[in-house]
Amino acid sequence: MPAVRNIPYGIQQPAVSAQVAQLEEFLGVTLFQRRPFALTPPGEKLYTFVKPFFSNLDKMAGDLQGGQTRHFRIGASTIVLRDHMPKLLTGVQKKFPGLKILLREGFPAQLETLLANDEVDLVLTMIERKPAAGFQSQVLLELPLVLLVEKSSRFKTATELWALDKITEPLICLPEHETMTKNFQARLTEMNVEWYPAIEASSADLVVGYVASGLGIGLSVSVPGQPLPKNVRALALPDFPVALVGALWRGKNTPLLDAFLDMARQRAREMA
Fold first, then answer.
1. Shortest CA distance to 195 belongs to which of 177, 221, 217?
2. Pair (134, 15) in one structural domain
3. How far apart are CA 199 and CA 107, in angstroms?
4. Same structural domain for residues 155 and 214?
5. Are 248 and 216 members of one domain?
6. What is the number of domains present in the chain?
7. Which of 31-40, 44-53, 146-155 has the highest mean pLDDT?
8. Which of 38, 41, 235, 249 has the most neighbouring CB atoms within 10 Å?
9. Are residues 81 and 200 in the same domain?
């Protein structure tokens, strides 16, 4: 069950299910329907009773710890976690000694879901120019879209692709609901070009790897200082929307969040 992921004590789902079953047996009532999940009237009554106590546990823990936040949950893509997060975490741990950090990996839509479900405090990912209601955002980088091809490819510019009656080369990209893919397809529609994904990869790393393996042409972004494999080159897409990489969070800012955002902005300036 998704709730188990929010329990910070290492308890597994079978143990939680057993405890709930024992509680139902003790009370002599059913607290929730399993499939689909829904609280029963007795479950609603019990939830209303215990919610004020559990909702204030984090605040009480913070008060007992001198008002300092002791954990920070961050979601990001594989590339961010691998190439940039170590430096950010080194800085934040110096400012907040003893801080416990939880890292979650995923592509943009997954990360936004984690944030909406309060499973992370902040995500670093590709974002829209205007965030959805209830979210706050900070643009860190604007990265131009590119098409990745093998060095031996006959295509020297993207314009040569658009001039074809039909593009037969497989398109490799992130899932269709991702912002970068949606914006790319929207621009193709404006140009009256049809070219749909043949392979949907779960990360930008996989897109690059699949192109290097000769599986097709990949949609990606040009990242400063990030080299491509020796057998891959990039075709510019100057008339396409840029990809926005930024931070996304909910609720009020905290000293910890502000400190992390400051370091993320500094890292972005170094890259640019």
1. 217
2. no
3. 16
4. yes
5. no
6. 3
7. 146-155
8. 249
9. no
Tokens of 12: 């597994």
d(C-alpha 144, C-alpha 224), whole Å: 10
Same domain, 200 and 217: yes
Contact (Cβ atoms closer than 8 angstroms) between residue 245 and residue 141: yes
CB neighbour burial string for 8-39, b if at least 16 within 10 angstroms, e if fewer = eeeeeeeeeeeeeeeebeeeeeebeeeeeeee
Residue 60 domain-assigned (yes or no) = no
pLDDT of 10 above 50: no
Query: Which tens digit of pLDDT belongs to each residue from 226-237?
Result: 889 999 999 999
Instruction: Note whether residue 61 is domain-resident.
Output: no
Q: How many angstroms separate the CA atoms of 41 and 144, rounded? A: 53
DSSP letters along 74-126, please? Answer: EEE-HHIIIIIHHHHHHHHHHHSTT-EEEEEE--HHHHHHHHHTTS-SEEEEE
Q: Is 196 helix (H, G, I), strand (E, B) or coil?
A: coil
The pLDDT tens digits of the residues spanning 92-102 come to 888 888 888 99
Contacts of 120 (CB under 8 A, 6+ apart): 73, 74, 75, 102, 104, 111, 114
Domain holding 83, by residue range, is 66-142+244-271
Query: Are both 126 and 188 inside the same structural domain?
Result: no
Query: Residue 85: which CATH number?
Result: 3.40.190.10
